[in-house]
C-alpha cells in the first residue's frame, strides 16, 4: 500500500493524518475512499476471514504509452451507431468480452479483451499531445510546459514516485538493476529539429528518480516529412520503423558522453557528495 509522507498524529476517528493522505493518494491509481476503507478492513480481518485472492501480488508493472497513438474510434471505443461525422471508417468485430467490440484491424487484441479494462471517462481540455499530463496527472498543462521537461510546474511520473517510495522503505538495499526503466528513448529526442518533450520524469523529486532511458543504437527504416515552423525535413523516422540490426541498450557505468572527461566526472561526484551532506543536516534540523 502506497503511503505518503506525513505526521503520525491521530484524528478523533482514530485514523492518522498519514492514513488520510494515503487514502487521498489512492485516487491517483483509480481507487476511491470506499475502496481504501474496504481494503483496510480486509487487512485488519482475522486469518479465518477470506481476503481478495490476488490483491497486491504484482511485482512489476509495464506501462505502454503510445505516443501519438490511434484514436479510441479506431481501437476499442468505435461508436458504430454514432453519426457519420463522429464514427470512424473502420468496422468493429466481436471480442472475448461480450458487449465490447474492437477494430477490425486488431484481431489479436480482440482475443484478450476479457483481461483488460477500458476506461471511457478519461478526458482533458488541452488540445496538445499531453504526454506529461497523461503520465504524471499534473492538473494543468500548456505548450511551454509540454516542450520543457525541466519546467518547475511539472509533477513526477508515477514510475518515479514508486521508485522514491521503494528507496525510502529500503534505503540500504543494493540496487543492481534499476527499478524505473524507460525505452526506447526520451520523447522526440531522435527527431530532426525537435527538442525532447516533457513526460515520464521525476520533476520536483529530483533527477536521481528519473527513469533510466535506453540508448538507441541503430537507424530508422522509414522516412517522414516534418514541418517545424518555416523549416521542412525529410529524414529517418525511428518512430515509424527501425532496421533489424537496431538495438536498445542500457548505458553502463563505464559509458561517458564524448564531452565528459574524468576530471568533470570527479567534479560532479564531489558536488553530489556535498549536496548529500547538506541534505543530512537539513533532515536532522527542525
Q: How do the helices and strands line up, and which of them pair or pack?
A:
Elements: H1 17-26, H2 33-44, E1 92-93, E2 102-103, H3 107-111, H4 131-136, H5 143-146, H6 158-169, E3 181-182, E4 212-217, E5 223-228, E6 231-236, E7 247-250, H7 262-284
Parallel strand pairs: 3-4
Antiparallel strand pairs: 1-2, 4-7, 5-6
Notes on the structure:
With 286 residues, the protein is α+β, with helices and mostly antiparallel strands. It folds into three domains: 1-59, no CATH class; 62-123, no CATH class; 126-255, no CATH class. Helices cover 25% and strands 10% of the residues. It contains seven helices and seven strands, in the order H-H-E-E-H-H-H-H-E-E-E-E-E-H. A three-stranded mixed sheet has the order 3-4-7, with no helix packed on it. Strand 5 (223-228) and strand 6 (231-236) form a beta hairpin. The longest helix has 23 residues, at 262-284. It is globular and about 65 Å long. It starts with 16 loop residues before the first helix and ends with a helix. The relative contact order is 0.07. The model is unreliable at 1-11 and 17-30 (pLDDT under 50).
Amino acid at each position: 500500500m502506497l503511503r505518503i509522507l506525513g505526521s503520525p498524529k491521530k484524528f478523533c476517528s482514530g485514523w492518522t493524518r498519514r492514513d488520510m493522505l494515503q487514502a487521498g493518494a489512492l485516487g491517483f491509481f483509480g481507487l476511491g475512499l470506499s475502496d481504501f476503507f474496504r481494503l483496510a478492513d480486509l487487512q485488519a480481518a482475522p486469518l479465518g476471514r477470506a481476503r481478495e485472492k490476488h490483491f497486491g501480488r504484482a511485482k512489476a508493472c509495464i506501462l505502454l504509452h503510445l505516443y501519438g497513438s490511434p484514436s479510441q474510434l479506431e481501437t476499442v471505443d468505435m461508436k458504430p451507431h454514432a453519426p457519420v461525422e463522429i464514427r470512424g471508417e473502420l468496422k468493429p468485430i466481436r471480442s472475448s468480452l461480450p458487449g465490447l467490440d474492437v477494430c477490425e484491424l486488431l484481431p489479436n487484441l480482440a482475443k484478450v479483451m476479457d483481461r483488460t479494462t477500458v476506461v471511457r471517462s478519461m478526458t482533458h481540455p488541452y488540445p496538445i499531445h499531453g504526454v506529461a499530463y497523461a503520465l504524471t496527472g499534473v492538473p494543468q498543462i500548456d505548450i511551454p510546459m509540454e516542450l520543457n521537461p525541466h519546467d518547475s510546474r511539472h509533477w513526477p511520473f508515477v514510475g518515479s514516485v514508486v521508485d522514491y517510495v521503494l528507496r525510502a522503505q529500503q534505503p540500504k538495499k543494493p540496487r543492481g538493476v534499476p527499478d524505473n526503466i524507460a525505452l526506447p528513448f526520451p520523447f522526440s529526442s531522435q527527431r530532426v529539429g525537435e527538442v525532447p518533450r516533457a513526460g515520464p520524469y521525476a520533476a520536483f523529486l529530483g533527477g536521481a528518480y528519473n527513469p533510466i532511458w535506453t540508448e538507441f543504437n541503430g537507424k530508422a527504416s522509414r522516412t517522414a516529412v516534418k514541418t517545424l515552423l518555416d523549416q521542412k525535413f525529410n529524414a529517418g523516422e525511428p518512430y515509424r520503423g527501425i532496421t533489424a540490426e537496431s538495438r536498445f541498450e542500457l548505458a553502463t557505468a563505464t559509458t561517458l558522453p564524448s564531452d565528459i572527461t574524468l576530471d568533470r566526472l570527479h567534479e560532479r561526484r564531489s558536488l553530489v557528495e556535498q549536496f548529500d551532506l547538506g541534505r543530512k543536516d537539513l533532515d536532522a534540523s527542525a
